[in-house]
Records
---
Amino acid sequence: MGGHSCCSKQKVKRGLWSPEEDEKLIKHITNHGHQSWSSVPRLAGLQRCGKSCRLRWVNYLRPDLKRGSFSAEEEQIIIDVHRILGNRWAQIAKHLPGRTDNEVKNFWNSCVKKKLISNGLDPKTHNLISNSHNNQRTSNINKAAPENKKSNNSIFNNLDFQPENSNAPLEIFNKNFAKLPASCTTTFSTSGSHDSTNFPNGLLMIEDTPNVYSSSTSTILNPASLENCMWDFSGEPFEGTMHEFQQKEQEITCATRIIDRVNEAKGCPETINSSFDQSSSFDFGILESVLTSDLSCCDDQSSMDYYDQFPWNF
DNA sequence: AAGGTTCGCAACCGCAAAAGC
DNA sequence: AGCTTTTGCGGTTGCGAACCT
């Protein structure tokens, strides 16, 4: 028992790889590639199963891997993306060039998780642990009376939102934020390219670069249709439908009134400033990292209509 | 110094999706 | 269309190193 299901007939070596085995694998793959992992062990002269070879290559031998400890920037990206995606390590790793899903997962389990816990945050939801009852309340709201949502299905109309972790007056947020499903992420660029004095600390400026992070993050989600809409995530189909997202009841995130902000930012940044200046105690950085999306579809009235068609399920 | 405990990481396992036939 | 094989993923385990008592 305990053998690999993929190679039960062969006698295969297990456990740590020796330098000789590594060398054989590297040599074989650099010379011939890996058309089929199941045939790699035989062709490379290794007493391993294909799965083991693949894992060794992907997680350790690939030349484009970045070894060494994670930088603070990388850590922040992991936290931010995890907040949106949960334990989708492979997806998270795509935001970190040179890192593998296994590496990210190990780093999370050994380091980040503990940090979050020690900061009083639930590593699953990223919410304050003491606020978990509020989350429950929010979940119940989402479950309740779905038929009411149709009559009020604009993301900008929902005012039943209380931001986590904030000392700011509630009305500020009622005025400026709407709830979005965690899956409905929208890309903002940071305020780096702008005169940041016009914006509260951490406030996002919706702009040309559709990346939250200057590096590789690219997101977004365009629902293909209202029913069973599949979402496009980082250029690849996201694994769920809108309905599934709703069922998941992941962390509810908040967003600026996207279209209003875009329009205001284009013409009149002071409007933004004045509407946020009372809320300086709110951690806008949370928003910055959570909200990601391609706003190219949001720069006119038609895109406003576009968003308003969504079956927002608040 | 020795034994026990914790930590970090590489590797394994089982499952599901995708691909091939 | 249905079965088999392959691939990819997330959870978990096992082991060596570091740390603690």
Note: The longest helix of chain A spans residues 101-118.
---
Amino acid sequence: MLRSIKGLKDILPQQTPQWRYMETLAHTLATQSGFSEIRIPIFESTELYARSIGGATDIVEKEMYTFPDRDGSSLTLRPEGTAGVVRAVLEHHLLESPSTRKLYYLGPMFRHERPQAGRYRQFNQFGVEAFGTEDPLMDVEVIALLWRFFNSLGLKDLTLHINSIGNSQDRENYIQEFKRFILPKLELICGNCQRRYSTNPLRILDCKVPICQEATQDAPTLFDHLSPESASHFKTVLDGLTVIDIPFSMNYRLVRGLDYYTRTTFEITTPHLGAQSTIGAGGRYDGLVALLNGPSTPAIGFAVGLERVALLLSQHLSTPHPPLFFVAGFGKDAKPMALKLLHNLRETGIRADTDYKSVNLKSLLRSADKLGASYAIILGDDEARSETAILRNMTTKAQESVNLKEISQKILSLTL
RNA sequence: GUGGGUGUAGCUCAGUUGGUUAGAGCGCCGGAUUGUGGAUCCGGAGGUCGCGGGUUCAAUUCCCGUCACUCACCCCA
């Protein structure tokens, strides 16, 4: 049997209503907060991702779907959304207009990881990016939008973890000190972390291996090494969250995996998803726009993993369909009339269907029942002769004869 | 990339201490006097027992390999 590619999955009819619900909510909430939708390509030049995400990260090192174009240039399926949005923003000068500095997107991302619960090789993200201000209240606004999205979906037991990793200078200073601290313990920590010592020392703090956690127990915290500006920025963010009653949990060890993050970083977790507990995360990236040859521009954003959210959604979250009318046409003369009726109903805006496999009234009604029709419209040769049809309520079994000329209007009044 | 678990009908799973026609429930299709559905009863279709090899008179069952799915490590949304 032909199967889908490993780590990819179909979203089946039973699930699509929930997806629409999530997506609609994302559009609504983002728009309410003044964000405009942007749609960008799902692949870009490899260089864009390599430069923005960081060469020493796992994403760039081993998780990208990279392939040569026919002219030999290297392309990559997008592993995340921010880099592409920044590229588009610069290419189309969106920073020039106040109305296009807050953007959101929805769409598939690709990472070649080993699949497991809540982790796929193609997965969908809802993300927002706000450019051009370093006001900490923008941090609050972005986090509040993320929080509100989850709340509106009825998600429970969520924790907002938050930290500040400072600006690049703060981090540089801290890294020096942290390296001095960890150097004597280098033999104790895991091999992965020994490698990180030279590539990405901050991630040692985030390591889940017990010996590493122990080794960094008394490490100096980045939090204590923030510059006065970064510290005051962070304090204003926390105060702002308090003002609007968003509970948070300080997490000094929270270091995000992408190189471009600065200052505020945050992550929302759930205890109900096994190992993949993060359902949304983000932070500031004040240096990225400049890194991609744009004007020095502060920015902040988040991304939500929609597959993970979908796993948490209650099955009841779906938009109900309008009532279905089943046209049961049978008999030589009646069938063409039934075809015309079905077509007319649909043109009138009524949800209508039939079943071409069923040939007698019994099997037609059975099909009507299986399809969940609210009404069946019976049109046999007897009815055809008098230009009428029988309108049957499938739940009450009440039925009446209706003139074919009036039936669309009659049905329209029923659906209101 | 590394480890664990699982692969029998469309779905959920039994089963065979190795033995000849492999089962159930649900679902699907049909019938119960010919133009009235759902319930009930009856019947039917549907399986290379993941794939390949080995042991054996005999393998779905035991052994080896392989693939797929899954969970976890890692990493991240």
Note: The longest helix of chain A spans residues 16-32.
---
Amino acid sequence: MMALKLKATNLGSMPSPADVIFEALREAIVEGELKDGETLRQDHIASLFNVSRIPVREALARLEEQGLVTTQRHKGAVVSSLSLEEIAEMFEFRALVEGEVIRHAVNVISDKTLAEAKAFAQAFAAEPDSGKWAGLNRLFHYTLYKDCGRPYHLQIISKALDKIARYLRAQLVLTHGIARARAEHEGILRAAMARDADEAAALTRAHILGASRSLIGFLQAQEKK
Amino acid sequence: MMALKLKATNLGSMPSPADVIFEALREAIVEGELKDGETLRQDHIASLFNVSRIPVREALARLEEQGLVTTQRHKGAVVSSLSLEEIAEMFEFRALVEGEVIRHAVNVISDKTLAEAKAFAQAFAAEPDSGKWAGLNRLFHYTLYKDCGRPYHLQIISKALDKIARYLRAQLVLTHGIARARAEHEGILRAAMARDADEAAALTRAHILGASRSLIGFLQAQEKK
DNA sequence: GTATTGTAAATTGGATCCAATATCCACTAG
DNA sequence: CTAGTGGATATTGGATCCAATTTACAATAC
């Protein structure tokens, strides 16, 4: 073996075109750029990325497995939409898992991570551009969770968030959720800094379930119109 | 519109070849017929099902998204294997979610469903063929959960089970888990019939975490050899 | 005018073909 | 004999081509 040192990037794990397309579509759905029920034409996507339809189809298959799109044989893929009941259930699920995760995290959380979380909370509170709220909100929470040593839990939370992020956005922007979120983030952060795991878990649960009630109420009112 | 009534099977939602292959591979992995680390050759699978590699690749993409196989660019797909830590985490996760689900289920469970669960518990206890234990075990628990009105939770549980079913099998068959499982099932069933949601949840959690300890101990001993 | 049939265009899903990469093994140099 | 090179083989990933199905719409019948 030669002794020459060079920073070798592992070509074998470079993202394939299919990966790139998957990520782009996922992002677009999560960010709400592709609306509920919108149909995704393989040809169109393929020409956007200058590839054939093959990698597009692979990306769509993976998105369907995640529940972000729904496919009907020979009819194509549409962005999945969730009913009110389904949205409510997702929030319940998040409250359960995120509550558990933050409890474990707070018991072992480092000062460095706490500082990061604090920075995100402040950035969130100070951000004037409503388009960036959802992202900062997610970063804040994720930072508080990430030391929990439970990668599978984190992955599941992330996938659940992907499915409802579009709706959450509405909750923050359209229901004045931002003001309450600021206050509740402060509380969660304080509990975490005090290493009070049960309090952090309880506040996180309440935070999620509160957002759920607010969003569901908003969507119900919306529906009646 | 004509009045003729006939039981119309919706052709549009018939399983595609890709669906069939996905299910078959999933089943084979879950049942342990395909071992950890075994590589899956696209050509081989394609000829087994008499199709080209295209639907096989779609199935593999979906399996990878589920975490049942791992792909490396240009090297192909292998059946994912879980470390001891990962297995332990999956059990923790199951205890959390299944505990929650059975609590909600027991509050609304029908007598009919209880009777079904009882039948599965008895079938499980009486089954001499160890190859069928895992399936009956899963049916018993699923039956107790299914009235909970939370389809997303059930789906997540199902996917989590898929990832560890191979290992669970070993726990039941090789560690005398079957005897304890019989007794614990009885307890869970009794709590459910008494509509004692908290007790059913606590017993379910204990059941899962007990199986986890037993399995992890077994695998650790195995590893040292 | 409305409902129904038939046909053309659009779209998906699969097969085949081709290029890029990895793996294996024989060969060579030292 | 060993390390290393080069090329044959196997395998994957993507492009192109083709068949099957859906959709839109024009033509026809009533």
Note: The two ends of chain A are 72 Å apart (CA to CA).
---
Amino acid sequence: MPDDQTGKTVTDRTLQATDSTPVVQRPYADALSRLKQVGLRPTRQRMALAKLLFDGGDQHITAENLHGMARKAAVKVSLATVYNTLHQFTDSGLLREVVVGPGRSYFDTNTHDHHHFYVEPAGELVDIPVDSVELSRLPTPPDGTVMDRVDVIIRVTRP
Amino acid sequence: MPDDQTGKTVTDRTLQATDSTPVVQRPYADALSRLKQVGLRPTRQRMALAKLLFDGGDQHITAENLHGMARKAAVKVSLATVYNTLHQFTDSGLLREVVVGPGRSYFDTNTHDHHHFYVEPAGELVDIPVDSVELSRLPTPPDGTVMDRVDVIIRVTRP
DNA sequence: TCAACAGTTTAAAACAATTCTAAACTGGAA
DNA sequence: TTCCAGTTTAGAATTGTTTTAAACTGTTGA
């Protein structure tokens, strides 16, 4: 079935497969430790979603998108749960939300300090490593507020 | 009627009023010239919206917001037209769209190079003058793309 | 082992912001 | 004036997300 429309190839093995059968060895170890880390109960759905999210390297994913991936992976999860989970993960620091357009928000599995290119009109996000942007002289926040984070989004187009 | 809920006081006079009657003298001069500038037909609705937008100094406005302002100013415009107009103005460079959250986008009457504080959870936008942010070392855009613009949004909260 | 309950998931409805549609209207050229 | 492309409109449709209320499931402690 060569119809990987989602774009990302998910690497399933955490240990080397030892024979021709592509049996996964300890596929949930990472997902489990992440959930424990932030104190979320490791339910079937959360585990599966965590695996999809964090086993695939750095990804920029929408809710619909992840829901589709779950479907393809034969994981039964409702869209509402996908939303719940994405927000719980975001709130506990496992994910970062990146807003690029009205009605368009991505969840980024890379929570380290970095910025983004946003390719329009494709709607594609591309990471920019921290050290290739230098922000000097940040302003002081308005009275009574504290700085939470700085988002730099460089909008680019294909001419 | 002292119920100016929208927050912005719009200055109507472009010339001094000459008697006690608050009759506006050339209230549409600026709106008209802006529309001509970008080649949009000066219709009743566009003129009225342009006036609301550009006579009030720098503003961050949502579509619903502007629709409400029009209502209060006794201007009959549909919400669909407000959206159309905001996008036409944006496309022709009269406005700039600032996206801060999923399903939350503002139109900024200040089209000069500048950045924003976004105060959460109030959802309030505050201008940052260009020269109080210094961006050095910008990355080169992905192959086949050209840089359109750089958005810096500093998210702040009231603790 | 099991009862019990808080936490979780779910389908479905509700919601908010925005866009679309098809018909009515209008500014301006001829 | 007439005419027509451009514009506006009400209302429906769409999109993305959240809420609701009921069913389910992990975990705890007897």
Note: Confidence is low (pLDDT under 50) at residues 1-25 of chain B.
